[in-house]
Amino acid sequence: MEYARFVNGDRMKDFFRLMSRTQFLELLEGFEPLDSEVVPLTQARGRVLAQDILAPEDLPPFSRSTMDGFAVRAKATFGASESEPSLFKVVGEVPMGSSGQDIEVGPLEAAKIWTGGALPRGADSVVMVEFTHPIDEETIEVFKPVAPGENVIAKGEDYREGDVVLEGGRVLGPSDLGALAGLGIVEVPVVKRPKVAVLSTGDELVPPDATPRPGEIRDINSTTLHLLIEECGGIPVPMGIIPDDFDSLKRACEEALREGADVVLLSGGSSVGRRDYTLDVFRGLKGCDVLAHGVSIRPGKPTILAKQGNRALFGLPGHVASAIVVFLLFVRPLVRYMSGRDLSTGLNEVRVRCGQEFPSVSGREDFVRVRLEDGPEGLSDMKWAYPVWGKSGLISPLVKAHGLLKIPRDSEGLERGEEATCLLFSYTYQ
Questions:
Q1: In what helix (H) or strand (E) does residue 288 lie, and over which residues does it extend?
Q2: What is the pTM of this model?
Q3: What whole-number distance in Å separates Cα of residue 267 and Cα of residue 303?
Q4: What would the mean pLDDT of 344-364 be, rounded to a whole number?
């Protein structure tokens, strides 16, 4: 990356040269997913499976009834009807939890069975109790025929021993984990969750529980970034508020890396102001290369990306709107990618119509905070997007917005009624 330089007092600072969002995302492809770890099933929901899982046994391990009724040989029921029911001798009852192998059903015999009970020897189907009528304690009428296997789940019908139950790369859900539990698999190999360190810098910042003095303001970014990290599957590592000086920031970054952070977010030091040390700090870290400083997007233009081995360091804008947009566009895809998913935001994108004109400047990609509403009568084929204007240092426009409307880099704006793509905030719009 080529950088321009300019004199700022007696210091030389690097001024960013802009790359496209696509070029920035291509840099993220240079990172690798993390190694795997083994976790209990109860901790595996939403995690990415690290390898194929094979069935160690049949599931179910025996043929079982899906209905309350009578286990029979299906062939013996053929021709049974309400006008001419078939008679069966009841030879016993299959207790729940038993193997059923101590009872054998002959050609015109039946065994009482309950839902989930093991099929007794000789039986291949179950007649529902609704289609039977007791004659006495040992005899029933059956007035509806059943086919072989009817009302029965056969041994191994879910999975045969050696079957691939789940393929590696799958995001695990409750049903997946239930299948593993049914096979006696109580631990599962998954891709590790990235540890993401959050550093807020600014001498004017105080923690949310503090009372600001004149000239101070509570730190918003640490809270929003912490929750955004959790939402995309990362493990937040809060590092607190760091003083606005080179040595303090460098020590904090080194500590975060020593503690095993896979991603470091330094919020509030990515532009070209007099006291933005992030670029110098990243370059001062051993084995750290600066890959990018500046992206042709708004908000978030001064974003920095650096790389130390397989660890990423981001310099995020200090303004809350800019920091959140950059996180969603770049940090979130990388955290997902490191945890075994694809390199995307993973957020829903929908087509919308512009509720009013959206001005822009060719050469940059704009992401406008918008709220979505139903369209005018007769034009309800898709939602209509209306801008939620506000400076990038304000949080209230984000609270009111449902997502980000994309204005392409080569566009000078969008007209009212024109179609566009909206990236939805997963936590605000259902």
A1: strand 288-293
A2: 0.85
A3: 10
A4: 93
